Amino acid sequence: MYIERKIEKTIQNYMQFFPAVCVTGPRQSGKTTLIRKMFPRLPYFSFEDPDTRLTFNSDPKGFLKNLPYGAIIDEAQQIPELFSYLQGVIDKPGFTGKFILSGSQNFMLLNRITQTLAGRTGIVKLFPFSISELVINQSLTLHDTILKGFYPRIFHDNIPPAYFYPNYIQTYIERDIANIKNITDKTSFFRFLKLCSARCGQILNYSQLAVDCGVAVNTAKAWISLLESSYIVFLLPPWYVNISKQLVKSPKLYFYDTGLASWLLDIKSTDQLASHYLYGALYENFVIADIMKNMSFTTDNYSCFFLRDKTGHEIDLVLKYQQTIYAEIKSGGTFHPEFFKGLHYFNNLIKADKLYMIFSGANDTTVNGVRLLNWSKVESLFT
Questions:
Q1: Which helix (H) or strand (E) holds 37?
Q2: Cα–Cα distance between 3 and 7 in angstroms, integer?
Q3: What does the pLDDT read at residue 180?
Q4: Which residue in 158, 278, 292, 303 has the fewest CB atoms around it within 10 Å?
């Protein structure tokens, strides 16, 4: 069963204005399935295939000349020369075709596009499923969804997470990491990745992370950047406002997929998840990651932050576009007025347009000016 992706509308919009569209995102997020379903009439080529690479390299101009209406080119980063030849094709007067580019090594792909096809290519990010994409197709329970994660193959092929994630990480380290950066000590890198999972939803302290892993601080920073560029983790910045010099100014660390984070934490069952000391952090990660996915569905200029001062007042989420939204994220199914402390504290200093508490309860009501929102309805923050 194909699950419709919400990014399809953004891709169609870009197709109206750009001769090329690049679909990027983490490995196994469904890029090839999506673009082949959206553009069934375009010829498809994967440069992962050595025969296709050989055919292109033997006569690049002839290869592209036979594609007057464009094509889907997967694993495009495998052929660096492709982008210069594409520039020549799409810059010709009268060209009306469309090229769809995709690849699993995002750093290399985007680097080559920005060097050669800047201004000619619309770029979209396809992440694993969002909550709203799955809700209409699956019967979701909170703990099971956090543990499974959102990678399409887990749902399409009914693959147990315990089988999927070890192979995913092995492929990621052996192929993507080896091509982007020459990391000789892969054991240390894997240990670093596990240490990052134990810090999801926490303020990132590079020095402590480096000490715990036994690497230099600059190495820790480089490895975090590597994980960011391959869409394994992301950093949520603090919101800088002129209300106090006591604000925390370091980012928080999150994983794009809680299934991967849970596997790295050796969490193997929903019972183990529910009693794990990091359950609250994983739930927060679960919600914040879905916010990031929903931001990718739109071309509107949303910004996402957290807010914390050194006395302990905190807002888990500050979402800004045409209005400012403050949201607290709580894993429980009931609420207590104490949960609103950070919201009201900062709202008294800088007024927000809307206040939310995202929790696991079913109540959809407003209490003391705060709307209670179930985790399955995070998408409604954007409407």
A1: helix 31-38
A2: 12
A3: 67
A4: 158
Helix (H) or strand (E) holding 329: strand 324-329
d(CA 302, CA 323): 10
- Given this model, what pLDDT does residue 135 score? 81
* Global model pTM greater than 0.90: yes
d(CA 354, CA 368): 12
Eight-state DSSP code of residue 19? S
What kind and span of H or E run contains 24? strand 20-24
pLDDT tens per residue across span 325-374: 999 999 998 888 888 999 999 999 889 999 999 999 987 889 999 999 99
Output the pLDDT for position 69.
Answer: 93
CA distance 138 to 262: 21
| Cα torsion through 176, 179, 180, 183, rounded to 10 | 90
Distance (Å, whole) CA 287 – CA 293: 10
Domains in the chain, please, with CATH?
8-125 (3.40.50.300), 131-382 (no CATH)
Q: What is the pLDDT of residues 221-272, one digit of tens each?
A: 999 998 998 899 999 999 877 655 567 788 999 999 999 999 999 999 999 9
Spell 156-168 as b/e; 16+ CB within 10 A means b. Answer: eeeeebeebbeeb
d(CA 33, CA 152): 10
CB burial string 41-66: b at 16+ within 10 A, e below:
ebeebbbeeeebbeebeeebeebbee
**Amino acid, single-letter form, for residue 190:** F
Q: Where are the alpha helices (DSSP H) in 200-241?
A: 206-213, 217-229
Q: Is the dihedral of CA 249, 253, 256, 257 positive or negative?
A: negative
Other Cβ atoms less than 10 A from the Cβ of 339: the count is: 18
What b-and-e string marks burial along 228-262, b requiring 16 or more CB atoms within 10 Å of the CB?
ebbbbbbebebbeeeeeeebeeebbbbbbbbbbbb
pLDDT given at position 24 = 92
As a whole number, mean pLDDT of residues 183-209 equals 93
Listed in sequence order, the residues at least 6 apart from 196 whose beta carbon sits closer than 8 Å to its beta carbon are 209, 224, 227, 233, 253, 255, 264
Residue 123 CB-density burial (10 A; 0-12 exposed, 13-18 middle, 19+ buried): middle
Q: Is 321 helix (H, G, I), strand (E, B) or coil?
A: coil
Tokens of 169: 């990480």
